[in-house]
Amino acid sequence: MRIGIFGGTFNPVHLGHLRAAEEVREALDLEKVLFVPSYIPPHKELASDVPGSVRLEIVRLAVQSNPFFELSPFEVEQGGNSYSVRTIEHVRQRYGGTPWFILGQDAFNEILTWFEASRLFDLAHFAVMSRPGAERPDLRHVLGEEAARFRTASDGYVSREGNRIVFVHVTPLDISSSKIRDLCRQGRSVTYLIPEEVEEYIGSERIYE
Ligand code: ATP
Ligand code: MG
């Protein structure tokens, strides 16, 4: 199965995430994109104390209308630190084959700081989405010595083992969860930045006030 794994804190999920994931799904002809909210991100503190269960509900509401999108509670249910290698291994066991790990250029640029970074590239293909404000440096710059395993391909890079890194230019939407949280805190409108269902839910539950 051609499957994508889209991890993040999703605090909250916004239209930048959703549109970018939809464009990647179409570009790579994925049959399913799993949205995997992280429990405690290992190198990023949650800006506010929003429990995993609430972020799961937010993402559930956001993906329910897209037949290709699915919520995965895997990392929240595992608890502890969320490591993408574990999630990818879990998806490989469950669905077989090599999944596509989907992330924004800003996240990709820091990937060497991730747990067992070099193993990530053995377990998954990578789809790196463009994001406003994030540069796309040379692969050597991002991966250091790891870059030696990759050679240039038409749409990105391919490793000796056949694992790919593909750069997908998506419609630039300069939306971030931090921006949404700021607007909510200031009592300002977030309409047209997040799905309506999410806006209703976080408003009625007063999650980011
Ligand atoms: P925060 O401001 O809290 O960091 P965020 O908007 O960056 O939130 P994350 O949950 O950190 O959201 O991001 C999850 C993944 O989605 C990351 O790989 C990130 O690069 C990507 N992403 C987030 N927003 C966009 C966007 N507007 N365009 C493209 N990719 C995005
Ligand atoms: Mg982020």
**Any idea what the radius of gyration is?**
17 Å
Oligomeric description of these chains: single chain
Strand order of the largest sheet: 3-2-1-4-5-8-7-6
- The level of helicity is 25-40%
Structural class: alpha/beta
Question: Which sequence of SSEs, written as H and E, runs from N to C?
Answer: EHEHEHHEHHEHEEEHH
Bound molecules: adenosine-5'-triphosphate, magnesium ion
The biggest sheet, with number of strands, parallel, antiparallel or mixed sense and barrel status, is: 8 strands, mixed
Note the beta-strand portion.
15-25%
Q: In CATH, what is the homologous superfamily?
A: HUPs
Known CATH architecture: 3-Layer(aba) Sandwich
- Indicate the CATH topology: Rossmann fold
Q: How many discrete structural domains?
A: 1
Unreliable spans are none
The number of helical elements comes to 9
Structure, described:
There is one protein chain. The protein has an 8-stranded mixed sheet, with helices on both faces. The chain has helices at 15-28, 52-63, 74-78, 84-95, 105-108, 117-123, 139-143, 177-185, 196-204, and strands spanning 3-8, 32-37, 69-71, 100-104, 125-129, 150-153, 156-159, 164-168. It is built from 9 helices and 8 strands. It is of the alpha/beta class and 209 residues long. It has a single domain (3-203), classed as HUPs (Rossmann fold, 3-Layer(aba) Sandwich), CATH 3.40.50.620. The N and C termini lie far apart (41 Å). The longest helix is centred in the N-terminal third of the chain and has 14 residues, at 15-28. Adenosine-5'-triphosphate binds next to helix 1, strand 4, helix 5 and helix 8.
